[in-house]
Amino acid sequence: MKKNIRSLSKEDLRQFFISQKEKPFRGDQVYEWLWKKSVYDFNEMTNIPLSLRNQLADNFAVNKSTIHTHQQSNDGTLKNVLKLCDGNIVEFVIIPKDNRNTLCISSQVGCSLNCKFCATAKLKRIRNLEYFEIYDQVILAQKQSQEYFNKPISNIVFMGMGEPLMNYENLLIAIQKITQEEGLGLSHKRITVSTSGIPHTIKKVADQSVKFNLAVSLHSAIQEKREKIMPFSKKFNLESLLVSLQYWYSKTKTKITFEYIVFKNINDTIEDINALVSYCKKIPCKVNIIEYNPIGDDEFLQASSEITDLYVKKLNQADISATIRKSRGKDIDAACGQLANKVQKNAS
Q: Looking at the structure, do residues 50 and 74 belong to the same domain, yes or no?
C-alpha cells in the first residue's frame, strides 16, 4: 500500500526529494499544493515536472474524503455525510446566517463519551479522525459554501461528532493547517473547540499556546445533576473542571463559553439558575442557552421558554453575558446533538 503523502511534514517531503537526488525546494512546492491549494491529484501540480509527478504517484497516494450525501434544511442549513477513505462516515454541517457561514465539523467516528441527551453519544466510538480528515471537511465545506451561498466559511466550530479533546493531537495539527499561511490562512479567532470538559487535557492544550476559543458543554453546575445528564462527568467533577478552566484563562486570556441546555424537570429550577450564576462568577465567561433538539428519548424534554428567559435574566443581572441560541437544521437531524450517522449502512 502506498504511503499517504499528507502524513508527511514539509521536511519529510524535502528529504524525499533529496533522496531522489532532486532539489529540496520541490518538497516546499508539493507541500503548498497539498495544504494551501488543496490539490489531491499529482497531475494538477503544474509547477512540478511530469517525471517528478510520476515519481510521486509511484510512491504515494493522497488519501482523501468525499461527500457521500448531503441534505438542505428548510432554513438553509446543509448537512453532509462524509465518507472517509476506509469507508467509515462522519457528518459535518454548514449553518448560514446573516453575513457569516459557520461550519460545524467532527473529530471522531462515533463518540468517546456518554451524554444521555445526544444522539452521537449512542454511537460506538470507532476511531479518531486523522488531521487531514478534519482538514478535508473544511475544504469540502468551502467549496459547498461558495456554491450554495456565494460566500466562504467564516467560522469553524468543533461541535460535530466526537469529543475533540480526546483527539487533541490531530485537532491541534488540523487547526495549524487550517490557520497557517502555508495552509488555508483562516483566523484562530474564528475557530471554537467545544468540549464536554476533560480537565487534564484542557490544561495540556492550554500549555500549547493555542489561540482558538474554548466552549464547554456544562448543562448543570450541580454535580449530581450533571452526572445524570453526562454520566462520564463522575470522573471529571465540576471543581476540577473549574480549576482547569481558570488555568486555561491564565494561559490564553480568552473567555470561556459555557453551552447550557435547560431540560424540563431536570435543571429548570431557581436552584439550578443560582448554581450556574455562582459557577460563572469564578471564571471570565459567557453563556449560550441552547435549544434542546429531541432524539426520541422521553427522559429529556425542552424546558419552558419562561425558565430559559429567567436563566438569561439572572445571568445578565450578575453581569454575565448570556443569550439564547436557536437551533438550525432540525428537520434534517443536523442540529446540535442530532448527528447520528443514519446513513452508515448505505455508505459502503
A: no
CA separation for the pair 129, 88 (Å, rounded): 10
User: Which of the listed residues 36, 61, 86 is the one where a domain comes to its end?
Assistant: 61
91 noted as active-site residue: yes
**Terminus-to-terminus CA distance in the chain, angstroms?**
20
* Catalytic pick among 104, 115, 280, 336: 336
Query: CATH number, domain at 48?
Result: 1.10.150.530
C-alpha cell at 204: 495540556
pLDDT one-digit tens code per residue, 120-160: 777 778 999 999 999 999 999 999 999 999 999 999 999 99
Which residue has 457521500 as its cell numbers? 68
CB 131 within 8 A of CB 170: yes
Residue 346 has pLDDT above 50, yes or no: no
- Number of Cβ within a 10 Å radius of residue 207: 10
| 336 has catalytic annotation | yes
More confident residue, 1 or 18: 18
Question: The CATH number of the domain where 177 resides is what?
Answer: 3.20.20.70
Which of 32, 44, 91, 239 is the catalytic position? 91
Domain enclosing residue 256, as ranges = 66-346
